[in-house]
């Protein structure tokens, strides 16, 4: 099957779109930081990082953030993260050397925890130290610590993924879902919601199992959407070896087209559970937690919209430079079953006690 004949189903995202009104200011300031940060090895890398449109991505997650500097600080990490991912997670030699990547990941993580750490010549470390100092000043401390923990989870997930790639093994669906929660960077991303908005959710509510389940489900829906967004690009570059579709093919011997439709049904089942659990939690949630739950919805919708517009994933033949494609959305879920999905790593999301 070629990328021309592959049919991607429309995405279901039953949330209102929103974007921060300062998105253009945000992009300008962030690009100025990218140019001054030293992370770009050359013009090609700089162009790839700018083309992620991370300002648009994050402005859709936190459309109501009141403080521009908080918003900018958290935006910078997304430009940094996409750049680091392309330079070290997806590219030789580290993308097939888990030993080398783990060594780098340890140094990177320590730089986040202890700004001023020795960069050892790694150009991404001083830039991360700058972001860490800004975040620590923005507070609250609990949110920054959650971000640090989420960052560690992301790097561990990437190490897991690179280990699979080095061993030429494809995980099945359950292992892939567990790994994808980490490789997506969702914990770090949603921890930055508090840093960007200045809204602090009380720990008793933020750490409640229902909140954790909702955060994981929002992370998973966005991660599976990114698998969809990047599929054609990965097929063209022969990089499509670890995504939800290859995991379904591994477990069920499906064709790629059948796996795409099955992956969409799986994604919609998770989204349906997210919506139902969120509605159950809202009446007993405080004002701050309800704002956070709204933020999860913005994240799902915003990621889905960004991913269908950003040059990072688009076919260059989509349209003239600068022309954004129109987006059509599914009106209904592809699977309305309320039954738990049969994957042990995520089945607990359907625990009736969560509500």
UniProtKB/TrEMBL annotation:
Q: What are the required cofactors? A: Mg(2+)
- Write out the coiled-coil annotation as residue ranges: none
Q: Which UniProt keywords apply?
A: Lyase, Magnesium, Metal-binding
Indicate yes or no for the key word Transferase. no
**Known Gene3D superfamilies for this protein?**
Farnesyl Diphosphate Synthase (1.10.600.10)
Enzymatic class:
lyase
**EC number(s) from the headed UniProt entry:** 4.2.3.-
Record keyword Repressor present: no
InterPro entries on file: Isoprenoid_synthase_dom_sf, Terpene_cyclase-like_2
Q: Which Pfam families match?
A: Terpene_syn_C_2
Q: Which family does it belong to?
A: Belongs to the terpene synthase family.
What name does this protein carry?
Terpene synthase
Which organism is the protein's source?
Streptomyces coeruleoprunus
């Amino acid at each position: 099957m070629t990328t021309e004949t592959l049919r991607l189903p429309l995405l279901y995202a039953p949330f209102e779109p929103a974007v921060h009104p300062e998105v253009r200011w945000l992009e300008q300031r962030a690009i100025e930081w990218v140019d001054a940060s030293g992370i770009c090895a050359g013009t090609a890398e700089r162009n790839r990082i700018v083309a992620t449109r991370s300002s648009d991505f994050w402005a859709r997650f936190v459309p109501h953030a009141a403080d521009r500097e908080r918003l900018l600080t958290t935006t910078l990490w997304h430009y940094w993260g996409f750049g680091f991912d392309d330079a070290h997670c997806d590219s030789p030699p580290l993308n097939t050397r888990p030993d080398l990547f783990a060594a780098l990941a340890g140094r990177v993580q320590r730089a986040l925890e202890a700004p001023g750490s020795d960069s050892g010549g790694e150009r991404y470390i001083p830039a991360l130290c700058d972001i860490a100092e800004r975040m620590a000043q923005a507070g609250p401390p609990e949110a920054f610590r959650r971000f640090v923990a989420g960052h560690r989870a992301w790097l561990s997930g990437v190490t897991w993924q690179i280990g699979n790639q080095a061993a030429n093994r494809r995980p099945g669906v359950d292992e892939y879902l567990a790994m994808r929660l980490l490789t997506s960077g969702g914990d770090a991303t949603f921890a930055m919601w508090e840093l960007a908005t200045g809204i602090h959710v009380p720990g008793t509510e933020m750490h409640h199992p229902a909140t954790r389940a909702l955060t994981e489900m929002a992370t998973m829906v966005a991660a599976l959407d990114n698998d969809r967004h990047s599929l054609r690009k990965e097929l063209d570059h022969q990089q499509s070896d670890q995504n939800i579709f290859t995991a379904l093919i591994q477990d069920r011997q499906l064709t790629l087209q059948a796996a795409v439709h099955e992956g969409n049904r799986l994604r919609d089942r998770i989204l349906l559970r997210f919506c139902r659990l969120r509605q159950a939690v809202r009446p007993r949630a405080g004002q701050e937690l309800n704002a956070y739950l709204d933020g999860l919805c913005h994240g799902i919708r915003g990621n889905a919209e960004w991913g269908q517009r950003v040059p990072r994933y688009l076919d260059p033949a989509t349209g003239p430079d600068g022309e954004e494609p129109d987006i059509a959305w599914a009106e209904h879920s592809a699977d309305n079953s309320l039954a738990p999905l049969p994957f042990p790593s995520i089945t607990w999301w359907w625990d009736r006690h969560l509500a």
